[in-house]
C-alpha cells in the first residue's frame, strides 16, 4: 500500500501532466493516454513517400510504421519543436527542392536527421541540418575545416543534399532506396541488395537504424501534414519567425573579427553567429565570404565595414605585446589583468604550439 506522501506526489505529477498536455494543444480534461495513442493510429495512414506507395496492407510494414508514429506522438514536446521550427526553415528547403525537380517529401529527411537544428551532431561525426559526414560533405562541395563548417549552413547543406539525393536516385532508381542509402551509405545498401537478391526496401534486412529510418520519416510526414488531427493546434504566432536577412559580400586580405562585422551590420556578435552557424570561432579568415546580416542591415554595410577595418588595422600596434623570455600565457594574462581565455580568442592560439620569445601577442581588444 502506498504511503500518503506518495499518493500526494502522484497526484501532483498527474496534474502536471495534464497542464503539459494542455500547453501542447490537448484538452485540459482528463484523458486516457493509451486510448489517445491507439485512436491516433487510425488517423495515421501513410500512402506514399515521394510518390512511391507504402505497402500498408503488409502487416509487418504496418507494425514498423505504428512503432515510429507512436514514439513520435509520445514525445509531444519534440513534435511541437518540429512544428515551431518548420516555418523558419522548411520554406527555403521546399523552394530549393522544387527548383531542382526533387520530391517535396525529401524535406522530412532533414527533420528526421537533425530536427532542423544547425548544430546537431552525432557520435559518428555527422553534423548539421542534413547530418553529413565530413567525407560525404566535402565530396558534394561543402567547405569543412576548423574555421568554416558548411554542414551547419542551411542553404549550402541543402544544396549538397540535393546533389547527393540525385546521385542516389540515379543509382537505385527509387526515392525510398535513396533515403535508405542516405542513411547507411550507397555501397552498404548495394551490397545487401546483391546478397539478398531484392531491391524492395520493405523486404530488405538492413541495419536496424536504416530499417527504422524511412518509417520515422513517414511518421513525421503524417504528423506535420495534418498536425491538428493529432492534437497539435498551433496558432500563427506560435511558430518561430521565418529567417529574415540580407546577403553581403566581405572581401579581406586579412582576418576580420566577427565583432567588427556585427558592428558594421549594427547588430550583435550573437546575431551574426546565429545567422551564419557555419562560421567557427571569432574571426573570418582572409578571403571572400558571403554572409547573412539582419534584414535591412546591408544598406551602408560596406562603408561602415571599411571604416571599422581601417580603424582596427591602425590600432594593431597599440594592442601587441612581444613575448619575452620566461613569459607564458598565464603570466601575460595576469600582467595585463585580462582573462586567459581572452588571449586564446584574440590570438587564435593553438594549444599544441607553445609561445616563444619574439612572438607577438594581442593583449587588448579592438575598440
Explain what this protein looks like in three dimensions:
There is one protein chain. With 367 residues, the protein is mainly alpha-helical. The chain folds into four domains: 1-30; 33-238, Lysozyme; 245-314, no CATH class; 320-362, Membrane-bound Lytic Murein Transglycosylase D, Chain A (Roll). It contains 15 helices and eight strands. It has helices spanning 4-23, 33-43, 59-74, 76-99, 107-114, 134-139, 154-172, 175-184, 186-196, 208-225, 258-264, 269-275, 301-314, 329-335, 340-347, and strands at residues 48-49, 52-53, 245-252, 256-257, 283-284, 287-294, 320-322, 360-362. The strands form four sheets. It has a two-stranded antiparallel sheet with strand order 1-2. Helix 4 crosses helix 7.
Topology:
Elements: H1 4-23, H2 33-43, E1 48-49, E2 52-53, H3 59-74, H4 76-99, H5 107-114, H6 134-139, H7 154-172, H8 175-184, H9 186-196, H10 208-225, E3 245-252, E4 256-257, H11 258-264, H12 269-275, E5 283-284, E6 287-294, H13 301-314, E7 320-322, H14 329-335, H15 340-347, E8 360-362
Antiparallel strand pairs: 1-2, 3-6, 4-5, 7-8
Helix pairs in contact: 3-10, 4-7, 5-10, 7-8, 8-9, 8-10, 11-12, 11-13
